[in-house]
Fold this sequence. Notes:
Blueprint: H1 2-7, E1 11-13, H2 19-22, E2 30-32, H3 37-50, E3 58-64, H4 67-82, E4 86-93, H5 101-110, E5 114-118, H6 122-134, E6 140-142, H7 147-153, E7 162-164, H8 173-186, H9 192-211, H10 216-224, E8 238-239, E9 246-247, E10 251-255, E11 268-270
Parallel strand pairs: 1-2, 3-4, 3-5, 5-6
Antiparallel strand pairs: 7-10, 8-9, 10-11
Helix pairs in contact: 3-4, 6-7, 9-10
Amino acid sequence: MQVAERNKRLFMQIGARSDALRGKNCNKYTFHVDIPNTVMVNAVGRALVRQNMVKDKKFFTLTADYIFGHDLLNAAKRFFAANQGNLIGDELIATDVTDFSPYLLKIRQAKPDVVCSNLAGNQVTTLIKQYAEFGLPYPIVGFNLNTADAWAAGDGNLSGTWPTVWYHTLDVPASKTFVANFIKKHGKPPENHAWIEYISLKIMAQAINATKSTETDKLIAYLEKETEFDILKARKGHFRNWDHQLMQEAYPFTVKPRGEAKDQWDIIALGAAVPDANEPLESLAPTREQNPCSL
């Protein structure tokens, strides 16, 4: 992002989810395609509220000890405070941790109602497997999970409610076509990173075709008009002009019981899209008051 700003060149940021990148660190040359941490927290949070798993419940969180994890924890704290959930403990987890037994023992002593993962990457998979082995009775949920990490957990290890930005079982014609073509070429379904790379390139192609230019200023002006893009979801997406975040649907998901998956990629049961169809796409995103972005 800093290099893009220094060189005055458009940068499409398609993987990082930290709110801070769209907030205090934002700049006019960067556009963000993936959902931010606040949206992931709110997507899962809505599902938990519907299940009566937040109000007056005790939460214990495990948080990745770098900007992404800290950022995710802050979003979670805002959600707990707004919905009368109680955070009774949090442990910061270094990025090289592979043995979670000391933290699982602390969880056992704390006796929370819900355990929440604010981790990323293969640490999520490692935690899930060890949590299943420990046999703790407290439901575990998470505010971040990528498809490949869910698949890597294996049948029967993953449980709880998690967020995703897209999944290959989505019942949308354009999405189904993309999935069928991907499977035909690669022999397996696409995970969320494949989807986001595909739609990001489609967005850029649309912008270049519409402006008949690759000049940064013209492309930024086109994107800032809040132009709509087909992103293989029921609702089209658009970039918010004041922080350059792509406004789009997200999905909570749960996990199919052991033995119900048809194959290694069929372990996830996708929930209904959020926000609801009658709500603005911005309703789960950080507000201007919460987001200190200044372009």
